[in-house]
Design brief:
With 960 residues, this protein is of the alpha/beta class. Among the domains are: 135 residues, tt1808, chain A, CATH 3.90.1570.30; 149 residues; 167 residues, Adenine-n6-DNA-methyltransferase TaqI, Chain A, domain 2 (Alpha-Beta Complex), CATH 3.90.220; 141 residues, Alpha-Beta Complex (Adenine-n6-DNA-methyltransferase TaqI, Chain A, domain 2), CATH 3.90.220.20. It contains 28 helices and 36 strands. A 9-stranded mixed sheet has the order 11-10-9-12-13-15-14-16-17, with helices on both faces. It has a 5-stranded mixed sheet with strand order 1-2-3-4-5. The two termini are 47 Å apart.
Length: 960
């Protein structure tokens, strides 16, 4: 029996939501029963148990049939367990629909089909009105948008594409201008459909029939522009008390008629739709997806809904979006309040005129207002202005927004922390706008990931923590805003903004939650997935109740202590503070930052502009000197050297023999042991061991090399990953007694010698071409074309593999680890690789490395590579063999320019002299080299086998 009472606010929210959907909680029409069934028979079926709510049909065809069981989540209870309980009750009552809810967040289930019910392609996640619930008696999937409306909405996007071209021809050059002009016309169509539905359903409206689509169609085409501008828009501005309807800029009467003729037969609004204005939202979403210059104005609706549920706006509060785009956050906030508030003349007036506020810097503000009118109103406080130029102090209860990323601003002097960095000023603007006297001033912001860790934003993060209670940071997966942008983003949720809180009222930690899946594929297509969404968890646990702490930890939330954040440059990336899994080692664990045992030094690079700094007597280590990820390099020399002046005029330091060098940028986790004195570039963290009688450098190198995954977890960065000195110092390694270290190193060194021998075989083998003096020698410029690669953000998932300069290994082969991807679009498709394309590294220490692309998989090549495509005289396989030879490398070293950052661009490559035999001879050479490579393959297998043995022995040290 259910004896635990519902929390008052939960019951209030459920009751108001049901009332607003037309359910009757009391009176003669009562069809909602709380903590009891309607009849004695049903009570007996329940065997004394009491569902929280049972909802019955009042339709004469299904009179008194239980339709819905609602089970509310009790304190400390999971929504899933409430759903299971509700399903048991519903089966006993033969009710088809079950909801489990905490008042705002809902999960649903259909007992007749044993799956969640679907509405318009999405799982039902809010209560249903009775008429809609009845449609689920025979089906688990319902569409309130009719097939004709669905078809016509797709036609709408096609018509927009056609209109886009027409409007461009009429002189509207900017995409947003054409978009806005089409939206003006579309609004007339949609508002007319909406008003027609009101008329047919008996709803009284003050809409002026002279503004109706049919009235406009009756005007001759030659007079239609003038009629819309001087009659329709003037009356609409008066009706809605606004100035958003400005004269059309279309000059051609013919184009206006053609657009209207195309729109006229469409039916875009459905009488059964529960969401007013959804046709306009569909247009905004789909048109933004096909026109990248509009994408910045649209935030996916499931992200918007998550954030609105986090802040849970209430009637009487003022909600502000300073960067409101097409109004998604404001419309969802309006709907949220409308669905849960008590409805009377005062509350409806307050919602429509004194609740929703927003700014948009572009003319899109007009579209936001139209969108809100179609959604139910709330448009009157939307303004076209630059929010950053107009700081607002203490006017609102809630700020919710997706702020513009990585902008520069000239208005930074207007804020507490002056800066030209838009990320800083956007966050400051949001904080400043919240009323310090509000009972719970709060904000939910989408920020670029860089805001959480960049050094130049540390003071802004500090200000955020000082002036609010940071409740949670929700890490969104890279790709949630595709196809508009691939920027990695996070949601920041803060409460008590600008309140002067006592120390005891300040949070001592915040919750970090990493969303692995938002329910859609993380590519340009953003297809709906069937494995659910991690966004459910921050919605269900939005209250962040302290008594649910262990439960939250169990499902993936991480508690981040504020004190640690303060000690770590106010970095808010949760992975920075993850404790490594407790190893089972019996040996004491020591931090690399423990100054009793180690000193850590970063490296540096002398200026490449000063030749006096280069080619000296000091070995200077770069990533090239640690060529392989999976073993410890014994460093006896370096490819580059610097002078004492170069050392003195850079951050590089002279490091002693026995220093353990660890790559900490881009390719993180490669390890070497210095057998000579040396310096490194800034891509390394270098460990100097203080007591060699107690700790062996080679042991430390092996132990650190096994922690590569931990290092990657602690690294951050948008363009490339980097491990900070602070985080590197937190890495722990076990330190056994010195005699055990010696045994371990001796065993691992024996395996390493076998690996080194096999590597020597592999490395020693170079394809050799016996050049005949009779062969023609041609410059590459005469036999091939050159093309530079594509610049984009490398993603963990995407449409095509992104082949980068680091993907070509020392043997001229494509690396199989650390694969990255890009999204395909019109531009990136120009850089798709074809089988037997040749790629050449053109910059940095790896210049000249040459890859023959032989895969069939879709791939795009990156900007630091050059593609060579040969004419019919040259086999690409032959050129690849030549490019591994010393004959090629001698020329490459002579042609490269630049001391600090070698450049091997197309102008240099085109001068390479290629000995060119006949195609028959080229085929024989390639066949011979392929035969030789087959003999080398066993050495590669030896390397893999003994690398595995090394890893297994190291795992034993860690007790794994």
């Amino acid at each position: 029996m259910n004896t635990m009472p519902l929390e008052a606010d939960t019951r209030y929210l459920i009751d108001k939501s049901l009332e607003n959907l037309g359910w009757a909680l009391k009176g003669k029409r009562q069809n909602v029963f709380f903590e009891r069934a309607k009849t004695e028979r049903e009570s007996r079926l329940l065997e004394g148990r009491r569902p929280d709510y049972v909802l019955y049909s009042s339709d004469k065809n299904f009179s008194n049939k239980p339709l819905i069981v609602i089970e509310a989540k009790k304190k400390g209870e999971r929504l899933d367990s409430a759903l299971e309980q509700g399903i048991r009750y519903a089966r006993q009552l033969e009710a088809p629909i079950v909801f489990a809810t905490d008042g705002l967040f809902c999960k649903s289930y259909h007992t007749g089909f044993d799956r969640p019910p679907i509405l318009n392609g999405e799982e039902v996640d809010e209560f249903l009105r009775e008429a809609l619930a009845l449609k689920y008696l025979a089906h688990w999937e319902v569409n309130t948008v009719s097939p004709k409306v669905q078809y016509d909405r797709k036609e709408l996007i096609r018509i927009f594409d056609e209109a886009n071209n027409m409007l461009r021809g009429d002189g509207l050059r900017a995409g947003i201008e054409r978009f806005g002009e089409f939206a003006n016309i579309l609004f007339l169509k949609l508002i007319s459909e909406t008003e027609q539905i009101k008329k047919e359903t008996g709803v009284v409206s003050g809409f002026d029939t002279a503004c109706h689509w049919d009235a406009i169609k009756d005007i001759p085409a030659s007079a239609r522009i003038d009629y819309i501008n001087n009659t329709v828009y003037r009356r609409l501005n008066t009706l809605y008390g606004t100035t958003i309807f400005t004269p059309l800029t279309i000059r051609s009467e013919t184009i206006l008629k053609e657009i209207m003729d195309k729109l006229d037969p469409l039916m875009l609004t459905d009488v059964d739709s529960d969401v007013k204005g959804d046709a306009f939202e569909f247009f905004l979403k789909e048109s933004a997806a096909t026109k990248n210059d509009l994408g910045e104005y649209f935030t996916p609706r499931h992200i918007v809904r998550t954030m609105v549920k986090l802040i849970n706006p209430q009637i009487g509060e003022k909600i502000y979006d300073p960067f409101c785009g097409t109004g998604g956050f404001l419309i969802e906030s309006f709907r949220h309040i409308w669905n849960t508030m008590p409805r009377n003349n005062d509350t409806v007036h307050m919602l429509r005129t004194e609740t929703i506020y927003g700014n948009e810097i572009t003319n899109t503000a007009r579209i936001t207002k139209m969108n809100m009118i179609l959604a139910g109103d709330g448009h009157s406080n939307i303004h076209m202005q630059d929010s950053l130029a107009n700081p607002i102090e203490g006017r609102y209860d809630i700020v919710i927004t997706n702020m513009p990323y990585s902008q520069k601003t000239k208005y930074g002097s207007l804020y507490d922390l002056p800066s030209n960095n838009g990320d800083s000023i956007c966050v400051q603007h949001c904080m400043k706008a919240i009323n310090a006297t509000a009972e719970n001033g709060r904000m939910a912001l989408v920020v670029p990931e860089g805001f959480l860790f960049r050094k130049d934003l540390a003071r802004t993060r500090e200000l955020l923590l000082k002036r609010s209670n940071l409740q949670s940071v929700i890490s969104l997966p890279q790709g949630v805003f595709l196809p508009y942008t691939g920027v990695k983003t996070d949601i920041i949720f803060a409460t008590k903004v600008n309140q002067r809180l006592k120390s005891s009222a300040k949070r001592k930690d915040f919750w970090f939650f990493e969303v692995k899946s938002d329910g859609y594929s993380l590519d340009n297509h953003r297809r709906k997935l069937c494995n659910g969404s991690d966004l459910d968890k921050p919605q269900e646990y939005r209250k962040l109740d302290e008594d649910q702490r262990q439960e939250m930890l169990d499902i993936g939330f991480e508690s981040i202590p504020i004190d640690r954040v303060k000690d770590n440059a106010y970095i808010l990336v949760g992975s920075r503070y993850r404790e490594a899994a407790s190893p089972n080692t019996t040996f004491p664990l020591v931090n690399l930052g423990d100054e009793r045992y180690f000193d850590i030094y970063s490296g540096g690079t002398p200026s490449s502009q000063n030749d006096e700094y280069w080619n000296g007597s000091i070995n200077w280590i770069t990533l090239t000197d640690l060529p392989v990820d999976d073993y410890v390099t014994q460093i006896h020399s370096s490819e580059r050297t610097i002078t004492q002046a170069g050392l003195n005029n850079s951050n590089a330091k002279m490091l002693p023999v026995g220093t353990v060098v660890v790559s900490s940028r881009a390719t993180i986790g490669r390890v070497g042991v210095a057998k000579i004195e040396l310096a490194t570039n800034q891509g390394f963290k270098n460990i100097v061991i203080k007591d060699h009688a107690r700790i062996m450098p080679d042991y430390v190198a092996y132990a650190i090399g096994s922690r590569k995954n931990r290092m990657l977890e602690m690294a951050s960065g948008a363009t490339f990953k980097e491990l900070s000195k602070t985080n590197f110092a937190e890495i722990q390694i076990p330190i056994p007694p010195i005699d055990i270290q010696k045994q371990i190193v001796e065993e691992l060194d024996s395996y390493q010698r076998i690996i080194d021998g096999a590597r020597a075989v592999v490395k020693s083998y170079k394809p050799r071409i016996q050049i005949d003096s009779k062969w023609t020698v041609v410059p590459l410029a005469d036999v091939c074309d050159f093309e530079y690669g594509y610049t984009d953000v490398a993603l963990d998932e995407g449409d095509a593999r992104f082949v980068r300069i680091t993907d070509i290994n020392e043997y001229g082969l494509l690396a199989s680890h650390d694969k990255k991807f890009v999204l395909l679009n019109k531009e990136s498709k120009k850089y798709l690789l074809k089988r037997n394309d040749i790629l050449v590294a053109r910059i940095g220490a790896t210049f000249g490395k040459t890859l023959l692309y032989t895969l069939e998989t879709t791939a795009v090549f990156a900007s630091y590579l050059i593609r060579l495509r040969f004419n019919s005289e040259v086999m690409p396989e032959y050129y690849w063999c030549f490019a591994q030879s010393e004959h090629y490398w001698k020329q490459a070293r002579d042609l490269v320019t630049g001391a600090g950052q070698p450049q091997f661009n197309a102008n240099a490559i085109r001068l390479i002299k290629l000995p060119l035999p006949s195609l028959d001879i080229q085929k024989k050479i390639v066949a011979q080299i392929q035969e030789e490579q087959a003999l080398i393959e066993p050495a590669n297998r030896i390397i893999l086998k003994f690398s595995e043995k090394i890893q297994n022995r190291i795992n034993e040290i860690w007790g794994e």
